[in-house]
Design brief:
Strands 1-2-3-5-4-6-7-10-11 form a nine-stranded mixed sheet, sandwiched between helices. Strands 8-9 form a two-stranded antiparallel sheet. About 40% of the residues lie in helices and about 15% in strands. The protein contains 17 helices and eleven strands.
């Protein structure tokens, strides 16, 4: 885009919006996107790639708007901020018809593909054929080649720029004040925006809260605690204890066997059914276990997967790993965007003391790999945002078994919030908004954010049953 047009856009944002803005239902274009059966509104907002260089290169930010069902919509929409970092808003559109359906009755839902994700100039590496069967050294080299080939200013893709993008979207769509829903990393972005533009935030909903002092790669302590809960829950369940009486010991034995390099597998390729050789190394094994801990239902399958691997039957574990990696297509997370954020905002705070305190085999390999790749990115460390108090009402949601953002993270974030409510759910991992009565509670909070939410119904969310054999979970 030419510099003169950037100036024109800025003036439009400041002068024409919101007074001259079209109704949301008339903005952008009608579009059909995966995750939603109905037509939505797609809006493209042109923005500077680097806000410090307003006449330099630009990017096109993709915004999806789901207009309120009622014509007399409330003037304050709900902006949706996905997690990661690296997940796009369009990756969570499926939540429109569940988690946000009650909210949408009276409010527009605005879903942003954060810069560098999804349809907003995705910052990613191309898919690599047979990645799951590649030796670790080849995977590492492929990642290094990808980083070297990308000629973009990684420092322009951080949380501060993403927060400024949200403000430009608010102006472009003509809203005065907004509500924010963020999940996981999206809670960091939501908090950043609330501190940068406090007068424009009516209320926040934070699901899986990232604390301001949290360093994303340093998650070993939380992951280990979540795994221990799986072991203790199985031991407390008579059927699980009977099926897997030595679960801790079997897990330790499998992890040691994998670490020794003794696990060479020959399994059918899920696409071609041809036999392929797979080396199950510690990064793959522990990374899969860590990923399983995110989901309450998955954690109840973990004892079966561990026991099967201990007995030498790795097919169920590898099948679960393939499913988690979205084996049939590119995964949703923009890998380079993830690194651009984490390398600038988290790794510089990953001190030797923190690494020692947070040491856990579950995350050690990933932390080492990220720090190694960050050296190649050579991104400038981001200036920390001042930890000022957030005055807007906040509803925080936490799963007690969350391996990355457990309740203790929300409590730490809440110390810098003047009006925060914190709801926790037992036997649940990462993500609450889609469970049980949560969609109704989101609507009730947004309608009256000053009132205390009656969250007794969250106790009715049942714990998933354990899988005791190949037939699946218990009935």
């Amino acid at each position: 885009m030419k510099p003169s047009l950037i100036l024109t856009f800025s003036l439009c944002a400041l002068l024409a919006f919101p007074a001259g803005a079209k109704p949301v239902s008339q903005q952008g274009r009608s579009c059909h996107l995966p995750g939603s059966e109905e037509a939505l509104r797609c809006v493209t907002v042109p923005l500077p790639l680097d806000y410090a260089k307003p006449t330099g290169p630009t990017l096109k930010l993709h915004v999806t708007v789901a207009p309120a069902f009622r014509e007399a919509a409330r003037p304050d929409p709900l902006f949706i901020l996905a997690g990661g970092p690296g997940q796009a808003g369009t990756d969570v559109l499926v939540l429109l018809n569940h988690s946000f359906r009650r909210v949408r009755a009276t409010r527009d839902i605005v879903v942003i593909d954060q810069r560098g994700t999804g349809l907003s100039d995705k910052l990613d590496c191309p898919a690599v054929a047979n990645e799951e069967t590649m030796p670790a050294a080849e995977q590492e080299q492929a990642a290094r080649n990808c980083i070297a080939a990308v000629k973009r200013p990684f420092s322009a893709y951080g949380t501060a720029s993403a927060a400024r993008d949200i403000e430009q979207v608010r102006l472009a769509l003509g809203y005065d004040t907004i509500n924010l829903w963020g999940a996981s990393y999206g809670t960091r972005l939501a908090q950043h925006y609330a501190r940068a533009y406090p007068a424009k935030v009516r209320a926040l909903i934070l699901d899986g809260v990232v604390a301001p002092d949290q360093v994303i790669p340093a998650g070993g302590r939380d992951a280990a605690a979540a795994l221990e809960l799986v072991f203790s829950d199985c031991a407390a369940n008579p059927a699980c204890q009977l099926a897997y009486p030595a679960l801790r010991q079997e897990y330790a034995a499998v992890a040691a066997r994998v670490a020794s390099g003794a696990v060479e597998l020959e399994l059918p390729d899920p696409r071609t059914a041809r036999a392929v050789k797979v080396q199950m190394n510690s990064e793959r094994f522990l990374g899969t276990v860590h990923g399983i801990l995110y989901s309450a239902a998955d954690t109840r399958r973990l004892p079966f997967l561990i026991h099967s691997a201990y007995a030498g039957r790795w097919q169920p574990f590898v099948a679960r790993r393939n499913a988690a990696g979205d084996f049939s297509s590119e995964g949703p997370v923009a890998q380079l965007l993830h690194l651009a954020v984490v390398c600038a905002e988290d790794v510089p705070r990953l001190t030797p003391a923190l690494r020692k305190d947070d040491d856990s085999p579950l995350t050690a390999a990933l932390t080492t790999r990220i720090t190694s790749l960050c050296a190649l990115l050579n991104v400038v460390p981001a200036a920390p945002q001042a930890s000022t108090a957030i005055k807007a009402p906040v509803l925080m949601l936490s799963g007690e078994n969350d391996p990355v953002t457990p309740p203790r993270r929300a409590r730490a974030a809440g110390e810098l919030m003047a009006r925060a409510q914190h709801l926790t759910v037992a036997h649940v991992g990462h993500g609450i908004s889609q469970l049980g009565c949560s969609p109704r509670l989101l609507r009730e909070f947004l309608d009256k954010p000053e009132q205390q939410v009656d969250a007794a119904c969250l106790k009715e969310i049942p714990a998933p049953t354990f899988q005791l054999g190949s037939a699946g979970p218990q009935p």
